[in-house]
Amino acid sequence: MLVKLDHPAILTKAVEIISELVTEVRIKISETGLGITAMDPANVAMIGFKIPRTAFSAFETGEEVLGINLDNLKRILKRCGTNSSLIFEKKDNLLEIQIEDRIKRIFTLNLIEIDSEDKEIPNLEYSSKVEIASVDLIAAVEDCAIVADACKFEIKDNKFIIQAKGLNSTLSEFSSDEATIEAENCKSKYSLEYLQKFVKGSKLSEKTLLKFAEDHPLRIDIQTAQIGLSFILAPRVETED
After folding, report:
1. I want to staple 236 with a disulfide (CB 3.0 to 4.6 A). Which of 12, 188, 189, 231 is the partner?
2. How far apart are CA 121 and CA 231, in angstroms?
3. What is the rounded distance in angstroms from the CA atom of residue 199 to the CA atom of residue 139?
4. Running DSSP on this structure, what letter comes out for residue 203?
5. Is 195 helix (H, G, I), strand (E, B) or coil?
6. What is the pLDDT of residues 69-92, one digit of tens each?
7. Tell me: the pLDDT tens digits for 138-149?
8. How far from 137 is each of 3, 97, 107, 171, 209, CA to CA, in Å?
9. Half-sphere exposure (CA, 13 Å, Cβ side) for 176?
10. Where does 2-110 sit in CATH, by number?
11. pTM value surpassing 0.85
């Protein structure tokens, strides 16, 4: 197995985000590209990450599954410069990682056994879909984190509302002028601890797609030509608002 990325920053940023949810993952490499699917230890959130085969400048591999400690991988990836190329080559139970720029540097990462079931992002039904500018979503989530530990996503009369209430409160409202809204009236509450981690991925794209429904898991999709990043977050269901 040998794969090469000429722009490894996309992988570096994704691994940083994923490592905030899980410490060990299975990286699957197949004829379609590289993928990671994982669930956090609390079974509250899932993450899916893909780099298509077309994003690699070299791709010589069959089906491979690499058990990786993300903290170790993250430290190595941070050694990449802006003009570096990155090569992954599996050798027995080791992953050789070459960073090529002015000079060649080689790291070896021990592959580990991960005792977990293969997971896929579930195909859920959603009554509401909102595509929003990533900067607006990030700002609204950070506003909410100032006043509470959870926020409510609501569709009301074709407006998208993000609000949080504690002793204090905040509200951001988006009409069809600021977001693409295809939705019916509904609301659901989500943990800001997780949302703050997820919206770091929104920085990778100008737009973020949100899918949710009444007291239903939230799906966040961030898509570029080079990566696909998805999150699923369980709702926080409470008897009182």
Report:
1. 189
2. 8
3. 10
4. T
5. helix
6. 999 999 999 999 989 999 999 999
7. 999 999 999 999
8. 34, 35, 38, 12, 10
9. 6
10. 3.70.10.10
11. yes
